[in-house]
Amino acid sequence: MINSVKLISLKESYMGKIYFYRDDCPACKVLTEKIKWCNKKGKEKILMYNTNSDLKNKRKIIKKYNISTVPIVINIDKYGNVKDITTEIIKKLNNI
Fold it and tell me: What pLDDT sits at residue 79?
């Protein structure tokens, strides 16, 4: 899990995946467990951020990463482009 301070201060050069979820979101629960399992097994490294964890910085983070709903997994490429890859991740995790 990553906290809001670290998420806000991620370098512009950061490349990778970030999973945004809420701990009280029924649709997030299954995906959260699968991502935790993959991270633990080393199959996939996805940063995880609970949008309920820090209401003070929530708006900054939502704006920075253009988050409109949860659950969502985004990928940040080497050019800083942000892409929603939630559907791809769900398919991949269902095949593991």
Answer: 87
Residue 73: other Cβ atoms inside 10 A: 24
Residues sharing a CB contact under 8 Å with residue 44, sequence separation 6 or more, in sequence order: 17, 35, 38, 92
Mean pLDDT to the nearest integer, 42-68: 87
Q: How far apart are alpha carbons 84 and 79 in whole angstroms?
A: 15
Residue pLDDT, tens place only, 3-52: 777 887 776 778 999 999 999 999 999 999 999 998 998 867 899 999 99
- Rg of the chain over Cα atoms, rounded to whole angstroms, equals 13
And the tokens for 14? 């950061």
Residues 6+ away with beta carbon under 8 Å from 95? none
Residue 90 is inside which H or E element, if any?
helix 86-94
Residue 39 identity: N
